[in-house]
């Protein structure tokens, strides 16, 4: 038994070491929603939003370690899409503690697996509108769109035809039901006890009268 446990522990440690080595080799950092990751001067890939958004930077894109913040956006935090369009499943802002002018083009790859005929747009904070990025490169095999950026912050979103966005299913209206009449209130404990006491007194009185009548009758005889 001890031998089997040692063999299992060694296999587990070996597997974890292999996973760590692969992650280091590819230089990919996976980051959850609304989080941050560090881009070094050596470049690399930062993965956000469960892998749906990837920032791919070449060597020398930044001159020193730069913290990249990922923030999910919605139609409430930014302007709505143009008429006839709707924001797709992915809208986000990539930013840093201060404005960053990238020294080389950095690619932003966005998954379109959950969106039909999606395009990618950039939000212009001056005009408060979305500008389509016609230069974005589609990959129909891997279902991605790749755009290039030169500055941080930047806000990007998938944009789809409004007709392709399913409308929410309305909740059924419950049928009105008759309210049952309230049951008669039970007598309070004190009232019930008083009634019982009164009944007992009447029984005792009846028995006393019966006994008295019997005694009188016997005496007369």
Describe this structure in words.
The chain has a six-stranded mixed β-sheet. It has a six-stranded antiparallel β-sheet with strand order 2-5-6-12-8-9, with no helix packed on it. With 221 residues, it is of the alpha+beta class. It has helices at residues 2-26, 189-220, and strands at residues 28-30, 35-39, 44-48, 53-57, 66-72, 85-95, 100-111, 119-124, 129-132, 137-139, 144-152, 154-161. It is built from two helices and twelve strands. 26% of the residues lie in helices and 35% in strands. The chain folds into two domains: 1-27; 31-164, Chondroitinase Ac, Chain A, domain 3, CATH 2.60.220.30.
SSE map:
Blueprint: H1 2-26, E1 28-30, E2 35-39, E3 44-48, E4 53-57, E5 66-72, E6 85-95, E7 100-111, E8 119-124, E9 129-132, E10 137-139, E11 144-152, E12 154-161, H2 189-220
How would you state the average pLDDT, rounded? 77
What is the total domain count? 2
- The number of helices is 2
CATH level 3 topology of the largest domain: Chondroitinase Ac, Chain A, domain 3
- Please give the alpha-carbon distance between the first and last residues: 105 Å
Q: Mind summarizing the main beta sheet?
A: 6 strands, mixed
Rg over C-alpha atoms, rounded to the nearest angstrom? 40 Å
* Strand residue content: 35-45%
- Low-pLDDT stretches: 12-32
Corresponding CATH architecture of the largest domain = Sandwich
CATH class category label of the largest domain? Mainly Beta
Characteristic terms for this protein:
Chondroitinase Ac, Chain A, domain 3; elongated; 2 helices; 12 strands; six-stranded antiparallel beta sheet; six-stranded mixed beta sheet; 221 residues; single chain; alpha+beta; 2 domains
